[in-house]
Amino acid sequence: MSAFLPSASRIARLMLQDFRTYASLDLTVARPLVALAGENGAGKTNVLEAISLFMPGRGLRRAELAEMARKDGPGSFAVSLTLDTPFGEHRLGTGLEQPVEGGRASRTCRVDGATVSSPTAFAEYVRIVWLTPDLDALFRGPAGDRRRFLDRFVLAVDAEHGTRANALERALRSRNRVLEENPDNRSWLDAIEREVAELGIAVSAARRETVARLGALILETREEASPFPFATLSLEGEIDHLVATLPAVDAEDRYRALLRESRPRDRAAGRTLIGPQASDLLVRHGPKDIAAETASTGEQKALLIGLVLAHARLVASMSGIAPFVLLDEIAAHLDPKRRAALFDALESLGGQVWMTGADEGLFAELDGRADLLHVAPGRITPFESRR
């Protein structure tokens, strides 16, 4: 993966206006590792969320844009990144503009001052991966959580995946509505199911390709003695089986036939039961060869970190861009040995890493290796200058 390190970019400056708890912030950083420490509620995660908006989707909290505007602010917000890249400096901006009278607030996206149509355009300049505490229960939680986790992995290497997934959701909602309101309109259902089948196979194929590539990279680079055990991955679902065993055109035909056959059952259920929306990502603890959900809490956390590190390497390999890595409250529950190993692994990725933690002491060993910043409500200062 080192072949991609020269194309690593760095956020040199982050500016926020009326975003979450920040009325205004102008932050400059210089190192590949950035550590943000401060009390809970001080605004550490808000910084990571602001950066995450430069990836397609709704950011690491999956919040509505209106929720990101500062309370008691004007209702709009702006986020700007100045990037140092091997190809020169670029400025990316996004935010929520105040609505024109009688209209609705709208999102804006800009690259070097020019308006672009959507956050998908940012993929030419940045890729982003992240890990947040709410993912700690990923392996024990519902399949939907793991699908969203996987879709974010896919999105980091295929910026169009979100567009396809959203279109599939809309088509499924249309089918469910027709089944409920007008189930005898076969021509209408045929047309919708043709769209569902085309989009569903495309979404499943993208997931399968990412899982295959990630699994191959993990096996190629695994270290049995690593404190972050390697994972083995697979997809479970009827449509995933079709994609694995049939050419795409034949898989679409078969899926369309399954949809047609299942209309009475789906109408009774009030939803479409067969499709990518019913798939699951199965993860196993590689060294122990056990299902991830049966591993200890500590083992699951280490396994999750290992997956995110591998994903960052995959993104660099496939896109040629070392991704920004956002790690919220990452070091709090790691013993000193694992913490030191994590910091070493993060430095080897080649991309810029932003970490948060409540305790400054968690990052003490990074002195001289990272920008160490203290976060207080509405302001960020270097550790040594905060008094």
UniProtKB/TrEMBL annotation:
SUPFAM superfamilies: P-loop containing nucleoside triphosphate hydrolases. Residues 11-367 form the RecF/RecN/SMC N-terminal domain. The keyword Lipoprotein does not apply. ATP binds at G38, E39, N40, G41, A42, G43, K44, T45. It is found in: Cytoplasm. Keywords: ATP-binding, Cytoplasm, DNA damage, DNA repair, DNA replication, DNA-binding, Nucleotide-binding, SOS response. It holds the Pfam family SMC_N. Belongs to the RecF family. The RecF protein is involved in DNA metabolism; it is required for DNA replication and normal SOS inducibility. RecF binds preferentially to single-stranded, linear DNA. It also seems to bind ATP. HAMAP family: RecF. PANTHER family: DNA REPLICATION AND REPAIR PROTEIN RECF. This is DNA replication and repair protein RecF. It comes from Microvirga terricola. The gene is recF.
